[in-house]
Amino acid sequence: MKKICLALLVCFFLTACGDKNNAPDVSGIKIDLKVDRFDEAFFSIDTLQMDQGLNKVNQQFPSFFRVYLENIIGISDPAELKLFYQYYRPVYDSSQKLYKNFNPIKDQLEKSFKYVKHYFPEYKTPAHIIPVIGRLDSRQDLARMANGEYTPNFIGPDLAGISLQFYLGKNFSWYQNENFINNVAPSYRSRRFSHEYITSDLMKLITDDLFPDKSAGRPLIEQIIEKGKQWWLLDKFMPYAADSVRTGYTQKQLDWVNANEGMIWSFITKNEDLYTITPATLQTYIGEGPFTQGFDQNFSPGNIGPWIGRQIIRKFESGNKLTVKEIMETPAKKVLEEAKYKPK
Q1: Is the CB of residue 174 less than 8 Å from the CB of residue 180?
Q2: How do 159-163 and 154-156 pair as beta strands?
Q3: Residues 162 and 132: beta-carbon distance below 8 Å
Q4: How many other CB atoms are found less than 10 A from the CB of residue 58?
């Protein structure tokens, strides 16, 4: 177990290669974060005394227990809960091999919460982190945010939940099951079901909470820019992280977009109406997939629109002295006009 935890710490250290040089000093910001191990409490129940065990968990987590039963696993009948327990016990056991010591995750979350507080001191970051084991049998087990991206996690009043069943490593046996691939998450998404993405997934929920994406139904360029804003804000909250973690691209995909930025933008502007609202076109550039249609299938990432949007926001930021909040609230049209984005 010590070796596994050490490996996690080493990996976190190695991924700390983001935009440190531009990051503000947040060392003076205090974050008091508590980890409440609901997963351990639930899976310590003696199934021979199910009712007593459930009552005990309810006493330990009086405000969250019903949320877990009704909204996360959708089961309240004790007999069905026993079946769920038995079926998902191996998943819990697998999670314990990785997350018995949750401190490396907690440290990463606290670090990002400090940046959130730096930019938005009035925002109430979660004080409690609750790891859980939920279901793995439906796409509905992954929540869809306003920007269209999926997340395994959830936030509520004063808490954030981490669905550990979606962070067991890309080679976890359940993720290779054909039913899982077809009905829950294809491999291009499940390859990110690993510990290094926990913080970025949660920070995406925070950005979505602060600035909900309201661009659905709007023209292509507006959606590109609005979604790009959220990726740009994620950079602010995770300046220490590798860009591959923040974008969700593989390193090969990231290298490709960085090397072909001018070509990507030229292709879009020459072949598409930037103000189209055609669903098929929107899905091509804004939506996850193994690659982007029209580009190299071996190197291009899916969901390339937000990456271009982030580049436009970065160009806009460099020419203005606006706060993060002001940039997030600047209309997409104004951003496009003033950024004068013409990558080579």
Answers
A1: yes
A2: antiparallel
A3: yes
A4: 15
Structure-block tokens of residue 83: 């079946």
Sign of CA dihedral 77, 92, 179, 303: positive
The percent of the chain in helix, strand and coil, each rounded to the nearest 5, is 60, 5, 35
Give the residues across from 154 on adjacent strands.
Answer: 161
Helix (H, G, I), strand (E, B) or coil at 41: helix
Check if the beta carbon of residue 264 is closer than 8 Å to that of residue 308.
yes
Half-sphere exposure of 128 (CA within 13 A, CB side): 13
CA-nearest of 247, 206, 336 to 18 is 247
Tens digit of each residue's pLDDT (9 = 90 or more) over 159-214: 999 999 999 999 999 999 999 999 999 999 999 999 999 999 999 999 999 999 99
**Residue 200 in contact with residue 275, Cβ under 8 Å?**
no
Give residues with Cβ within 8 angstroms of 70, minimum separation 6.
76
pTM: 0.90
Q: Position of tokens 């930025």?
A: 261
Q: Where are the alpha helices (DSSP H) in 19-77?
A: 38-42, 50-60, 65-67
The residue type at 220? L
Give 162's contacts (C-beta < 8 A, 6+ positions apart): 105, 129, 130, 131, 132, 152, 153, 198, 202
Half-sphere exposure of 66 (CA within 13 A, CB side): 2
Domain residue ranges of the chain, discontinuous segments joined by +: 19-210, 220-339
Q: What are phi and psi of 255, to 5 degrees?
A: -60, -40
